[in-house]
From TrEMBL:
First and last residue of the signal peptide: 1-21
Protein species of origin: Leptospira fluminis
Family annotation (Gene3D superfamilies): 2.60.120.1440
Keyword Signal: yes
Protein's UniProt keywords contain Signal: yes
Classification via Pfam families: FecR
Family matches, as PROSITE patterns: PROKAR_LIPOPROTEIN (PS51257)
Protein name (database record): Iron dicitrate transport regulator FecR
Top-rank lineage group of the source organism: Bacteria
Keywords recorded for this protein, A-Z: Signal
InterPro entries xrefs: FecR
Domain FecR protein: from-to ranges: 70-179
Length: 309
């Protein structure tokens, strides 16, 4: 009898374990099961651009997909444009080295761009609240959303080196939107807004004092890299149209004939935007004052005329 009861208990336990294993998954498990790797795609390439992987090295070509384990290398005359998860475009300058990792779920995407050396311009779609787009360098990282900005990782002397071990400078230059910059190994964070830039050395502390107005040199680099030419990749063309339609700064930089002209137009837009912000702020203050006066009047009406203060 005891053996029968024991067998029944064991059978019940096994049945319960089976039901738990085969039952509905938790939210976290569902996210993991739904997550999928979405390789980046090369949509434009010129000059010496190579892809290094465990299988060896090959020449970069339009339409080629790039996985997280691949390293993208551009030579002295090389440049490449990459679309990632239908959420952003990365334009890579000459003499650069980077990798791109993308994880996509039904609720958004997680993109991490590791820049080991060189320059890139990142153009990220706006209104992507469920997406995470990060640019990581050996010294600092930038979290972005709906932003166009330049990342530069270089040796001040001009010689190419391993920036993970050497003292390279990292520069973030923001054309529009904002970037949250943090330094590796530190808890501090600096917000870099539009038309601002920041240069950080390896042994330098990250503070707001490093923020400068966007320089002509950075604007020139941005303009030189932001050349959005349509091709036969439909998803890329749609994203280019969306980026231009949602960004006046991007339109100005891509359509003006010189850096000086672009700088003048960007300054005019900044002044116009600041004036509009001041008008909005003034209207808000006036409106709030009106409501305060109305509230005071209502309180007065509630007082007993015979009572005094």
């Amino acid at each position: 009898m005891f053996r029968i009861k024991t067998n029944l208990i064991l059978s019940s336990a096994l049945a319960i374990s089976f039901l738990i294993a085969c039952g509905p998954k938790t939210g976290r498990d569902q996210v993991k099961s739904e997550a999928r790797v979405s390789p980046a795609k090369i949509v434009w390439v010129v000059g010496d651009v190579r892809i290094q992987s465990a299988a060896g090295e090959k020449k970069a070509e339009q339409g080629l997909t790039v996985s997280a384990s691949d390293t993208i290398l551009t030579g002295a005359n090389g440049s490449v444009e990459i679309i990632v998860a239908d959420s952003g475009i990365i334009k890579v300058s000459k003499n650069s080295e980077l990798s791109v990792a993308t994880l996509v779920t039904d609720s958004g995407s997680d993109v991490k761009v590791n820049v080991n050396y060189g320059k890139i311009v990142t153009m990220v779609r706006k209104e992507q609240k469920t997406s995470d787009f990060r640019v990581v360098t050996p010294t600092a990282l930038a979290g972005v959303r709906g932003t166009t900005f330049l990342t530069s990782v270089e040796n001040p002397s001009g010689n190419r080196m391993n920036c993970a071990n050497e003292g390279c400078e990292v520069r973030f230059a923001v054309l529009e939107g904002s970037v949250a910059v943090t330094k590796v190994g530190e808890d501090s964070e600096v917000i870099l807004d539009r038309n601002r830039e920041l240069t950080l050395k390896k042994n330098q502390k990250l503070t707001d004092k490093l923020i400068l107005t966007l320089r002509s040199e950075s604007l020139k680099e941005l303009k030189g890299l932001i050349v959005l030419k349509k091709n036969d990749v439909l998803e890329y063309n749609r994203l280019v149209d969306e980026l231009k339609a949602s960004s006046e700064e991007l339109r100005i930089l891509s359509q003006t004939s010189s850096v000086e002209e672009a700088k003048v137009q960007l300054q005019k837009r900044e002044l116009s935007r600041n004036s509009a912000d001041e008008v909005t702020q003034t209207a808000r203050i006036v409106n709030e004052t009106k409501y305060v006066q109305q509230d005071v009047q209502k309180e007065k009406l509630k007082l007993n005329p015979k009572e005094t203060f």
